[in-house]
Amino acid sequence: MAVLGAILLLPGLCAILFMIGASKTGGIDRMLGGPIVFGLLLGAIGVLLIYTAITSQKR
Description:
Elements: H1 2-24, H2 33-57
Helix pairs in contact: 1-2
């Protein structure tokens, strides 16, 4: 589960980097808002999976 969570962190990281780059060039286009939010959502799911894997090992 932790490996899958680490893989899901990659789209979230790419979305964050894309938002930083787009903010320097004048803002995010409306068409790209949805995929960026989707990438951030996948990253959040990845963090949740890693957290769940770590906490379930302690039990």
